[in-house]
Amino acid sequence: MKFVGSAGGVAGAVGELLSTALGQQVPIRIRCWDGSETGPPDAPVLHLENRRALRRLLWAPNELGVARAHVAGELDLDGPFVQGLERLGELAHSSGFGVNLDWVTRRKLAAGAVKLGLVGFPPKPPPEEIRLGGRMHSRKRDAAAISHHYDVGNDFYALVLGPSMTYSCAVWAKPETTLEEAQTAKVDLVARKLGLREGMRVLDVGCGWGAFVIHAAKEYGAHAVGITLSQAQADFARKRVAEEGLSDLVEIRVQDYREVSDGPFDAISSIGMAEHVGASMLPVYAKALFDLLRPEGRLLNHAISRHPTAPVRDQKTSFIDRYVFPDGELEPVSAMAAAIEEVGFEVRDVEALREHYGRTLRAWVANLEANWDEAIRLSSPGRARVWRLYMAASALSFESGAIGVNQILAVKPTARGGSGLPPVRSAWLS
């Protein structure tokens, strides 16, 4: 591996420090605050704006330390962000990145840290970081978690999501499909799986900015109730419903799923909401939806999943938990299906849409980068960097198979086992 750059300088010292920790030369190019550079000329460029970035890594040598430095504007990747992360991941995988922290290595690292002026108190985390208090998944704490993520500002979300304001995996039928077309295809797929017809009553749990309930009412004549814990989402959705002339068919509420008491509904959709529920609350979640459905009513649960062998995120060091989805939990699709079945539902269909989410996220990253200055104006530089890192890393996770997304269609059977579904899948998707 050919190295080009400074004969010394800060970059040289940083390169030596990282090479000591990794037991090999660092396969990235490092550019430091004093103008020095080192590393392969064709590798992704890691730009260190000041020594605080390294001090953060010294105090938190994990993804949280990297995220804090990036959100604070102290560490960045030059060039297209998703491609840079992807290349960095490939290099990390191919090189092994086996860290050897024996006592000799520790002494070398300590000497290097002193040389770089890294010894000192840990820098304060960026203001975008959050740590929630109170009982996990209590209604009050869940509301605070949702507010942190969704009340960033509707104008900010519009830049990222586009006119559909749909914040979940789209369905891309063709290479030339646009984001708007793909999101319309997704909500229509949900409507068809639920068998919506004129006059039916449908509940959308976690309705976001109202895309599905509006589609259900406008295209199928359904009476739709959408619930969300975000006041900002509810305000936007109500305005959108009124503009579409659908106020007689659509009701938007700021309400927890555990508080809905005006069933039965003919169908229930939950699109990208179950990730917020938490493993311990899945039985409560599933039972609440079961009780709200009439016999032969259908549930469509659309949720991100983790591979069964993947470790559960450590909330103490997780970028996602501290900056993006506090208290969010991903479960294997088998666990989600089991929770749904155990309360009495019959699972009739499972569809994986993993590749579709990778493309959706890349489209959102492209929207954010194309409107970068405006995104910063509407939120903060740190918030924009949080979203770019989160969406880019998530796109790569979906594409690699580390996480997936699945639609589970379930039915509340009658006492005699009736489902109301045609026996052939193609018949209820037509």
Summary tags:
17 helices, four-stranded mixed β-sheet, disordered N terminus, 11 strands, alpha/beta, Rossmann fold, 430 residues, single chain, seven-stranded mixed β-sheet, 15% strand, 45% helix
Quick overview:
By secondary structure, the chain is α/β, with parallel strands linked by helices. The chain has helices at 9-22, 52-59, 63-71, 81-95, 103-115, 139-150, 154-161, 179-193, 211-220, 231-243, 282-292, 319-324, 333-342, 354-370, 372-378, 381-400, 425-429, and strands spanning 29-31, 37-38, 45-48, 75-77, 201-205, 223-228, 250-254, 265-271, 293-306, 346-352, 403-411.
CATH level-two architecture of the largest domain: 3-Layer(aba) Sandwich
Helical percent range? Answer: 40-55%
Give the overall pLDDT as a whole number.
88
CATH domain class name of the largest domain: Alpha Beta
Low-pLDDT runs: 1-7, 95-100
Relative strand content: 15-25%
Structural class category: alpha/beta
Measured distance between first and last alpha carbons: 56 Å
Shape category: elongated
The biggest beta sheet is recorded as: 7 strands, mixed
Secondary-structure element series: HEEEHHEHHHHHEHEHEEHEHHEHHHEH
The CATH homologous superfamily of the largest domain is called Vaccinia Virus protein VP39
> How many strand elements?
11
Q: Helical stretch count? A: 17
Family: Belongs to the CFA/CMAS family.
GO molecular function, one term: cyclopropane-fatty-acyl-phospholipid synthase activity
Domain Polyketide synthase-like methyltransferase: 156-413
Enzyme class: transferase
